[in-house]
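User: structure tokens for this one?
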Amino acid sequence: MVARTFGDPEALAVELLTTARAWDPDFWAWETKTMERHIGAMLLPAQMSAAVLSAFAVIAILLAAIGLYGIVNYAVSRRVREIGIRISLGADRGSVVRMLMATGLRPVLIGSIVGLLVAVAASRFLAGLLFGVSTTDAWTFSGTTALLVLSSVVAAWLPARRASRVDPMTALRSE
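Assistant:
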């Protein structure tokens, strides 16, 4: 039995059970629950899958940011002498940071563009798995891309900023 109410659904369930038992003493109800709980129970596997996939996505972004940090840090350590020469010849620290960040962010930007194109193409095949989101939802695509690029900017900025503060004399003597 399904009943619609604008009041308290639990109170209606009790009232319906007492009315049904008054009409038929052998009436037996297996379970009473609201439609919200019923639909929530049906959607629980999909919600759990989405939560697990979201956790994996966060871990993937963290691993990508850590990897980019390592790559830029390695590139900076290999270019300490060059950075020292640039700073001693008058390059400002901002241009050094921009140069080093461009080294790390160029592949990220290219990968983001290619990834967006592949995601739009693959979204048609995943349409059956999406709930409440269209296959070409602009907010989803732009939000995930912005999150990836922002984490990459932070991961590239930290070693680049540290390298821009290198003392030119120490950098020139290091090799």
